[in-house]
């Protein structure tokens, strides 16, 4: 018997179908209501749907269901399309009784836990495609729950996705062809599923990762998947999609245990997002993660070019933010070893940026001051960097130079650095005096400790107190000078004797230089006061 087609259905403006209105309306509550509003027996009616879920493919499936007297083969490959089309068209029990499409799809969805890995992926992809048109989040969450559950079982018992057999009370493990191929090409059994889940969009990846974290998945594996996902998708999408992917990956990495995210991965992400305008929240999270692992970074990692519009050669502000993140929890949380590693790294970075003629003194100071004194065992590298900076920035005022010299802990400068500083014309004379005094005190302490009376008897040195003019005095300007006495050491300490003589000579040389510079300083200060009393200003105090 021929069935006339008296109804035209336009699906989302993409395709039109000519169907029998009585056949379709007998299963669809929505269409029945629409046709019930039409007057008379006008033939060739037209219905237009603008937001039909699954578009033309879905409408074709439900038409087949209606023309087959409520019968259709429901499979994982079409269940999502049929399910949401049934909801949209109101194909429920109130319209067609036991033959309604909605209940049939609901019953099939209850069998989801028995589906193969490939079937789950197909259903998940269909749900993802339907997201803009309909609210399929409950079904999406169910699919993702099955995916994560399958991965959890697979990680415990097999490198392949697991599935429960409907014929057996036990659990069996099966691998479909795609998963087997993924396993063969993977370097680790725990990563066979990475390529399969590249079909997911950023939103679904976020839902997946949150579910995995809740189920206490290995965070290292999750972080590796996120990196693999971004690296695989990044060069195949447009700039807007790149930004969305980067933000999603950063946000998900941030909720993981930071020890599970490699520093190398974070710096790669930083490089690729330099020219992408990711949101401020994601950028702050990325910088915070890098800062917390700064002791694992290399100098090359930190040499990030400055953003457009900034004259600095390298992005000094970025490194300062890294350092602030590293110190955010307080130095008590950073072990001495980690702190010293960062100190060495920062000194290398300062030496690298010091020759930049566009680097302002305030930025240089901020870099050198950000770490506590405990981060440096020696200030020699910082001295060399400041020496280079003064070489390039010859126009700095005395005050600016003294601010740089205040960075030093003179006690942690080596003898060679102190002597070099005292003879370095680029440095203020007060800093040279301070270096000599510090070295003198250090050597005296060493000699005194070596010449402990408990070990060697009476001290072989006599101590005289002299002022700047060489007279005995006890005022605030006095300098203690060691004079050689008789060394009363045993023959087996000949090496120690030579060492002490050498130190004694260096003390005397340093003392001479110190006295000479103090005399010059006194004359210089006096002449400045006399020549320009109204405009005179005192030199900065020596740094302690």
UniProtKB/TrEMBL annotation:
Supply the alphabetized keyword list: Ubl conjugation pathway
Q: Which residues form the NPH3 domain?
A: 191-442
User: By its UniProt entry, which SUPFAM superfamilies does this protein fall under?
Assistant: POZ domain
Looking up Pfam families in the UniProt record yields: NPH3
**Which SMART domains is this protein grouped with?**
BTB
Where does the BTB domain start and stop, copy by copy?
Answer: 5-69
Q: Which domain of life does the protein's organism represent? A: Eukaryota
List residues traversing the bilayer: none
Entry keyword annotation includes Transmembrane: no
Q: Name one GO biological process term.
A: protein ubiquitination
Q: Which InterPro entries match?
A: BTB/POZ_dom, NPH3/RPT2-like, NPH3_dom, SKP1/BTB/POZ_sf
**In which pathway does this enzyme or protein participate?**
Protein modification; protein ubiquitination
What is stated as this protein's family in its record?
Belongs to the NPH3 family.
What's the protein here called?
Putative SKP1/BTB/POZ domain, NPH3 domain-containing protein
Q: Which organism is it from?
A: Rosa chinensis (China rose)
């Amino acid at each position: 018997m021929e069935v006339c087609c008296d109804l035209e259905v336009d699906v989302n403006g993409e395709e039109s179908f000519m169907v029998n209105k009585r056949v379709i309306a007998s299963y669809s509550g929505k269409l029945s209501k629409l046709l019930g509003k039409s007057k008379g027996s006008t033939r060739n009616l037209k219905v237009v749907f603008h937001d039909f879920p699954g578009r033309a493919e879905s409408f074709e499936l439900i038409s087949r269901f209606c023309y087959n007297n409520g019968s259709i083969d429901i499979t994982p490959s079409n269940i999502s399309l049929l399910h949401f089309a049934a909801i949209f068209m109101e194909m429920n029990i109130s319209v067609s009784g036991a033959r309604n499409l909605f209940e049939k799809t609901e019953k099939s969805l209850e069998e989801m836990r028995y589906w193969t890995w490939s079937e789950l992926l197909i259903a998940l992809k269909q749900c993802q495609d339907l997201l803009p048109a309909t609210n399929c989040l409950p079904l999406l969450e169910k699919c993702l729950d099955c995916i994560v559950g399958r991965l959890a079982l697979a990680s415990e018992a097999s490198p392949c996705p697991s599935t429960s057999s409907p014929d057996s009370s036990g659990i069996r493990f099966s691998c479909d062809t795609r998963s087997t191929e993924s396993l063969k090409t993977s370097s680790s059994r725990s990563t066979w599923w990475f390529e399969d889940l590249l079909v997911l969009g950023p939103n679904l990846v976020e839902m997946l990762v949150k579910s995995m974290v809740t189920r206490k998945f290995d965070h290292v594996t999750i972080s590796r998947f996120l990196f693999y996902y971004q690296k695989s998708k990044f060069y195949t999408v447009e700039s807007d999609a790149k930004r969305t992917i980067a933000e999603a990956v950063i946000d998900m990495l941030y909720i993981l245990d930071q020890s599970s995210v490699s520093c190398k991965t974070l710096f790669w992400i930083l490089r690729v997002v330099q020219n992408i305008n990711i949101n401020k929240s994601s950028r702050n999270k990325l910088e915070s993660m890098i800062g917390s692992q700064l002791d694992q970074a290399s100098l090359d990692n930190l040499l990030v070019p400055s953003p457009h519009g900034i004259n600095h050669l390298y992005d000094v502000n970025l490194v300062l933010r890294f350092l602030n993140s590293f110190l955010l929890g307080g130095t008590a949380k950073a072990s001495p070893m980690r702190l010293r590693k960062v100190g060495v790294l920062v000194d290398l970075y300062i030496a690298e940026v010091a020759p930049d003629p566009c680097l302002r003194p305030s930025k240089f100071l901020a870099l050198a001051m950000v770490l506590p004194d405990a981060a440096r065992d020696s200030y020699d590298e910082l001295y060399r960097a400041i020496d280079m900076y003064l070489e390039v920035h010859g126009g700095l005022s005395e005050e600016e130079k003294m601010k740089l010299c205040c960075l030093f802990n003179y006690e942690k400068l080596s003898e060679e650095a102190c002597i070099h500083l005292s003879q370095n014309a680029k440095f203020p004379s007060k800093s040279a005096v301070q270096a000599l005094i510090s070295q003198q005190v250090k050597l005296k302490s060493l000699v005194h400790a070596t010449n402990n009376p408990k070990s060697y008897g009476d001290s072989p040195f006599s101590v005289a107190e002299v002022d700047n003019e060489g007279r005995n005095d006890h005022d605030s300007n006095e300098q203690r000078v060691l004079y050689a006495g008789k060394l009363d050491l045993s023959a087996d300490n000949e090496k120690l004797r030579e060492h002490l003589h050498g130190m004694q000579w260096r003390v005397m040389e340093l003392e001479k230089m110190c006295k000479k510079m103090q005399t010059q300083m006194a004359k210089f200060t006096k002449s400045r006061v006399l020549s320009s009393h109204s405009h005179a200003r005192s030199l900065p105090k020596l740094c302690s």
